[in-house]
Amino acid sequence: MGGPFTGHTDAVCMAAVVEFDGQSVAVTGSYDETIRMWNLNTGEEIDASRAGKRHWTGAVGATTLNGRPVALTVTQDGTLRVLDLTTDRSTTTSPADRHGESVQNLAVTTIGDRPAAIIASGNSSDPVKIWDLATGNALGGLPTRATGAVAAATVNGQPIAVTTSYQTVRVWELTTRRQIGPDLHFPKPVTEVAISVDGHVIVCFDRDIAVFTNTPAPREH
User: Fold this and answer.
1) Can you tell me whether residue 185 is helix, strand or coil?
2) What is the dihedral of CA 219, 169, 103, 105, to 10 degrees?
3) Which of 35, 58, 99, 213 could serve as 54's disulfide partner, Cβ 3.0–4.6 Å?
4) 45: which DSSP letter?
């Protein structure tokens, strides 16, 4: 393993891996309000001269859109912004239905052939929203409230999301918007979740970590 990636001037709060020019690159977001890209083979920053222009002020994630790495941010006025990391240009923003300053977490995935964002508000009265990143159009939402971490992945060809609210975790099939399995309850507040491409759901609560090895089929309503 190489040495640490250096460049941020404050704590790093987001990390993602995206494909660019046929190779995997790391994208990091920091409380210094910059987004940076890194060559995973060399540890060198990619185009460091542009990093100062890649500002964000709210929730942040990263994905690939039309073959190019992009950062997804929700700004303080509630605007959903897709930033092309190679040109530092905003490619789209959300429509008039703003997300508000309470956005806490987001995740990015693909629904069908469309890149999408799953956005969770810190307000327990707000539903989880889904947005088409290519057009900025709303794709509806999930019939749940989520105030904490969210995660998404494609499992066996199906887009899956995990949402959290305090001590409860729910797993969703995004195409149908149906819940998979029962609610998962934990003795302490859930702080982070992740889902792997083979269907493992990882839940962090207090000092403990739980792993669920099989994602069940969507439950009947």
Assistant:
1) strand
2) -100
3) 35
4) B
CA distances from 184 to 103, 106, 180, 198, 218 (A): 23, 20, 11, 19, 14
Mean pLDDT of 111-126: 78
Q: What's the sign of the alpha-carbon dihedral 35, 81, 193, 188? A: positive
Quickly state the pLDDT bin for 99 (edges 50, 70, 90).
Answer: very low
Q: Give the C-alpha separation, 160 to 179, whole Å.
A: 10
pTM of the entire predicted model: 0.76
Chain position carrying tokens 């309470």: 102
CA distance readout (Å), 94 to 82, 99, 138, 144 = 9, 9, 8, 21
Q: Are 116 and 108 in contact (CB under 8 A)?
A: yes
Q: Would you place residue 197 in the very low, low, confident or very high pLDDT band (cuts 50, 70, 90)?
A: confident
Residue 162 has pLDDT above 90, yes or no: yes
Intra-chain end-to-end CA distance of the chain, in Å: 49
In sequence order, which residues have a C-beta less than 8 Å from that of residue 1 and are 6 or more positions away?
none
